[in-house]
Write a structure and sequence with these properties.
With about 425 residues, the chain is of the alpha+beta class. The chain folds into two domains: about 5-345, 2-Layer Sandwich (Alpha-Beta Plaits); about 350-415, no CATH class. It contains twelve helices and 21 strands. A four-stranded mixed β-sheet has the order 14-3-16-15.
């Protein structure tokens, strides 16, 4: 089996196909701290792509409540258990080997879904990627266990400290998910028909419906369960990255062919989402570009982390972890970069704070940002992840976002402007 380099794992790994990369890669960052579970993104995707017969159970975008929620149910805990069974006690990270371009989070020495598949022996024959087919009942309830908390009981000592930072004693959080358009997709690896491919222009992973025969190997192999079988057509379907919008085909949003964000991104009222197209070098690494907001958050500041990087698919969806959740759970989900991420998020410097304002500010994709410095407007005390306090200086800087063609598409300040309406014109003015 060919060897490829997975920068999220900090090491080479086996993959069924030779190393090959797109010119640019569809990628996104979600700030979980801002998600309000309104499901607007979910319904935006549903009403655009999956409203037909046979698609009733398809939620290409969904928001689930962790730790108990999931769609399909228990998708992550099941696979984590399978990997642990395949490699007992060996699914570990070596976080001492980090702070390099090739291994920003350290080195994962455990087995990926591809490694574990080599030792698989079962009645269904050999596999290219370890996985499982969910039962029909597991697809029935996309919002199972919504807002179900875990942690210490609401009594005694825990009651008074249940919502105290840096970790809540009783907790849950919302996890918005869609296809990660992985660099090494297991759905693509597992398909016996070679019906799945990555587009060379943007890295979006698609299924050729004319080649698909509905074997569901992609459904089985995808660790995030974002390839879904449609019984009315006998084929599998998945998130298409709203590629007409990425191509700039919307006549209203893209009069000159400007790439636009997907439907789920642009519909988000909580402003948790930021989407981009990052340039990829020939060796598969991200082209160094600190002026790109996605590159800045993921590769430069490392505040946004991949979802379950240990699965080995090198997902291109990244998350700013929720600051109130126990660190062990977050490390299992996002890897050993959690502490570094939260330290920055809890007390961002003026540059990082400015970039965080770009989330969900324009429908066109922001390729580059600039910051115009402003005056100091506040100094506040914040609680750090280790429980200590720190003074944060806030400056009213202005961050400017530019589209693919270098045109300004957004300009926003740190301090939200206040407008007072004249009382002699507006009766309800205060």
């Amino acid at each position: 089996m060919p060897s490829v380099h997975n920068w999220q794992l900090g090491r080479p790994m086996d993959y069924p196909y030779e190393e090959h990369h797109p010119r640019t890669q569809f990628a996104f960052v979600f700030n979980i701290n801002r998600c309000i579970n309104c499901q607007t993104c979910t319904m935006a995707c549903k009403s655009t792509w999956t409203f037909g017969r046979g698609q009733e159970h398809m939620w290409w975008n969904n928001v689930e409540t962790k730790p108990f929620g999931g769609y399909p149910q228990n998708w992550d805990s099941k696979l984590l258990g399978m990997l642990e069974q395949a490699n007992p006690g060996g699914q570990t990270w070596d976080a001492t080997k980090k702070e390099s371009k090739e291994a920003p989070y350290g080195r994962f020495d455990g087995q990926t879904v591809y490694d574990a598949a080599k030792g698989y022996a079962g009645p269904d024959g050999p596999k290219r990627a370890l996985g499982y087919l969910p039962e029909a009942t597991e697809w029935e309830s996309p919002n199972m266990h919504e807002e179900s908390a875990t942690g210490e009981a609401w009594s005694g000592k825990a009651f008074g400290s249940s919502t105290q930072l840096p970790e809540h004693k009783v907790w849950y959080f919302y996890l918005a998910r869609l296809c990660n358009h992985c660099t090494y997709p297991s759905c693509l690896a597992a398909c016996p028909r070679q019906a799945i491919y990555k587009r060379p222009e943007d890295g979006i992973v698609l299924i050729d419906q004319s080649r698909c025969r509905g074997y569901q190997r992609c459904v089985e192999a995808c660790p995030y369960k974002k390839s879904i079988y449609r019984p009315t057509t006998g084929t599998s379907e998945k998130c298409v990255g709203c590629y007409p919008r990425i191509e700039g085909k919307d006549p209203l949003l893209s009069p000159n062919g400007e790439p636009c964000e997907t439907r789920c991104m642009t519909a988000c009222p909580g402003k948790i989402r930021l989407q981009g197209l990052v340039s990829i070098d020939e060796d598969g690494t991200w082209t160094v570009d600190p002026s790109s907001p996605i590159y800045y958050l993921v590769r430069d500041r490392k505040i946004a982390l991949p979802l379950y990087p240990q699965f080995g698919t090198e997902p291109n969806g990244f998350y700013i972890p929720p600051r109130w959740v126990p660190r062990g759970y977050l490390t299992q989900m996002f890897g050993p970069g959690v502490e570094h991420s939260l330290e920055q998020y809890c007390c961002p410097d003026r540059e990082l704070l400015a970039v965080l304002q770009l989330f969900r500010t324009t429908q066109q994709i922001i390729f580059r940002f600039e910051i115009e410095q402003g005056p100091k407007v506040a100094e506040i005390e914040v609680t750090m992840p280790n429980g200590t306090t720190k003074a944060q200086e806030i400056f009213n800087d202005t961050v400017i976002g530019f589209n693919k063609f270098g045109q300004e598409v957004v300009r926003v300040t740190i301090e939200e402007p206040t407008f007072e309406r004249p009382a002699d014109i507006h009766v309800n003015s205060i």
